[in-house]
Amino acid sequence: MKKIILTGDRPTGRLHLGHYVGSLRRRVELQNSGEFERIFIMIADAQALTDNADNPEKVRQNIIEVALDYLSCGLDPEKSTLFIQSQVPELCELAFYYMNLVTVQRLQRNPTVKAEIQMRGFSEQTVEGDTTQRQGIPVGFFTYPISQASDITAFKATTVPAGEDQEPMIEQTREIVHKFNSVYGPTLVEPEILLPDNAACMRLPGTDGKAKMSKSLGNCIYLSDTAEEVKKKVMGMYTDPDHLRVEDPGKVEGNTVFTYLDAFCRPGDLAEFLPEYASLDELKAHYRRGGLGDVKVKRLLIAVLNRTLDPIRERRRYFESRIDEVYKVLEAGSAAARATAAATLDEVRSAMRINYFADRELIEEQARAYAAKHER
Ligand code: TRP
Predict the structure, then answer these.
(1) Which tens digit of pLDDT belongs to each residue from 293-309?
(2) What are 23-68's pLDDT values in tens digits?
(3) Most CB within 10 Å of its CB: which of 135, 196, 202, 272?
(4) 18 near 215, Cβ under 8 Å?
């Protein structure tokens, strides 16, 4: 079977290193592997609006940021179709049909939705007399896993490179596909998630050591940060709080600087930037023994990050002076994506037998039945 990728991001801010090691870097590798028949990369503006209804301007302004981040990481419009979700209305149509195949109870059990309801302060309960708690959960937000299932299946994606927070979405997509195919006949493809293969990449902590790099926590290093900003952020990074003097033995586990090195170091980096150590393992051993200062490790990290980010910055500068062209890329990508989604929708409508005008059998049978009635 031919392999197809679909994945994407909500345009609510610039992309950061967590996005990069969690999915972006992998996408570019997969793109260049030639293993995939088609690759669709979607800017999920409609999904972003499910919890930003009052802030459409934020979403609107960030489309270009995400597009610039994509292109600067090396996603190539010749090889990957970059598009904007809202410009493919077939996705809404498909989601509307899927809504009949999913229960409210099943949506309520989706762990990512549950966590986000908590995080966003959408409260299910109304505290008596407390008007601030009356916000409630928007229906569109509640049902976004269904919309995400239509994003994936409209392109018959086999593979979704994403972080582990997306696992419940893919699971729910598979259930919808299974249900659709068993009710209406084999039409859709069950996708698989492709997770990062290294624990450090699975969930990159923030520069403050918190579990996740997240815009709202202000602990991000952005792909578009300058070398100066990266240096400042790394120098301020959380390490081992018990490693007070250089001579003290230090902990590597849970030490954010080492977690980042695990996520970003490539063979050859030590030889280039810190040749007195043969490998990252040797550096870690020295840190554990004591006698290795944080600043030296941080300098290495800065060098490794800039080695990663320099070519990204260079491409970003190139595309930043061609904003018009970037929108043309998205427009062409959206048209191409729409054609693919429309073809799937044709199949879906005929499987569901709601393709009335192409359904000669239906029309002729009813014509015969009425003709017989009038002959009587
Ligand atoms: N939920 C993803 C995010 O929050 C964005 C997204 C929307 C997506 N549709 C998708 C990811 C389909 C993978 C596949 O970033």
Answers:
(1) 999 999 999 999 999 99
(2) 999 999 999 999 999 999 999 999 999 989 999 999 999 999 999 9
(3) 196
(4) no
Does residue 148's CB lie within 6 angstroms of at least one atom of ligand 1? yes
pLDDT reported for residue 154 = 98
Tell me how far the alpha carbon of residue 8 lies from the centroid of ligand 1, in angstroms.
5
Contacts of 149 by beta carbon, 8 Å cutoff, 6+ apart: 95, 98, 169, 172, 173, 176, 177
CA of 193 to the centre of ligand 1 (A): 12
269 and 334 part of one domain: no
- Residue 209 included in any domain: no
Q: Do 303 and 331 share a domain, yes or no?
A: no
Domain that holds residue 104: 4-203+322-361
Cβ of 8 closer than 6 Å to ligand 1, yes or no, is: yes
Same domain? 326 vs 307 = no
* Ligand 1 atom 13: residue of nearest CA: 7
Q: Domain check: are 135 and 29 in the same one?
A: yes
Q: How far is the CA of 10 from the centre of ligand 1 (A)?
A: 7
pTM assigned to the model: 0.93
Residue with CA at minimum distance from ligand 1 atom 14:
7
Distance 288 CA to ligand 1 centre (A): 39
CA distance 312 to 108: 40
Ligand 1 center from residue 41 Cα (angstroms): 10
- Name the domain boundary from 265, 285, 318: 318
C-alpha of residue 155 to centroid of ligand 1, in Å = 14
Question: To 10 degrees, what angle do helices 167-184 and 144-153 make?
Answer: 70
In a domain? residue 211: no
Q: What is the dihedral of CA 18, 23, 27, 33, to 10 degrees?
A: 110
Residue after which a domain boundary falls, among 318, 340, 370: 318
Among 98, 151, 213, name the best residue to mutate to test ligand 1's pocket (greatest count of ligand atoms within 8 A of Cβ): 151
Are residues 274 and 176 located together in one domain of the fold?
no
Q: Residue 331: how many CB atoms within 10 A of its CB?
A: 13
- Answer yes or no: do 277 and 353 share one domain: no
Q: Specify whether 191 is located in the same domain as 256.
A: no
Q: How many CA atoms, within 13 angstroms, populate the side-chain half-sphere of residue 301? A: 26
